[in-house]
Amino acid sequence: MKRFVIGNWKCNKNIDDARRWFDTFASLYRPTPGVEVAIAPSFICLADLAVHVKELGLHNVSLAAQDISPFPKGGYTGAIAADMVRGLADYVIVGHSERRRYFHETVQDVVNKVHEAVDFGLRPVLCVEPASAMSQLAPLTDIDCEKMIIAYCPVDPLTFRIPESPEKVGEGIGFVAEMHPNRAIVYGGSITPDNAAEYLALTGLSGVMIGAASLKAESFANICNLAGAH
Ligand SMILES: O=C[C@H](O)COP(=O)(O)O
Fold first, then answer.
1. Model confidence, pTM
2. Which of 3, 78, 174, 204 is most exposed by smallest CB count within 10 Å?
3. What are the structural domains, with CATH classification, of the chain?
4. Which residues pair with 125 in a beta bridge?
5. Which CDD domains match (predicted)?
6. For ligand 1, is residue 176 a contact (CB within 6 Å)?
7. Ligand 1 center to residue 41 CA distance, Å?
């Protein structure tokens, strides 16, 4: 089974910080066949990092956008369309709980984003929360994108900084897999280098999505290297 380690920097790091992060990461990361790494910086860093990642020659490392417009390019001030991101990133995170909560994104907005991503060849990482998983997943059961990844991301671990127990994550991903069989599912929520191995060992889980612990290149490289050992 292919493994994914996805780092979401959220609203952190300017271009200089981002370049330094990659320089440190490159010195610590050990690529492993079958482990795909994606890092989601802010939009302003994408173009610069797309070049820098190539210069560093990092294997199995791609960039992800943290979000995408639900609309095509055109008269949508402030929006960034999927068509503008292709060529810079391979993945795009959609429907993160922070987008749904603080930016009032609806299920339909997220569905539209997934369609935009797929139309322009970006691999969606669709975030779902346990309490709303049914309504968030149901409109996408027929999406024609076998590469879509589902990120099972409960909100409490973000609020309280305690991960959901591996047992509960196992139950949650079982539910997701019933609705979307054969899709890669990753877990996100307070993963650190100290607890990552427990989650990477879970049957049916294809990897992890990491916020806070991805901000330190050392921690993130450590988790990527652990994924290679599982
Ligand atoms: O996008 C990542 C998830 O929100 C998890 O973030 P966290 O690792 O800081 O809990």
1. 0.97
2. 78
3. 3-229 (3.20.20.70)
4. 93, 149
5. TIM
6. no
7. 13
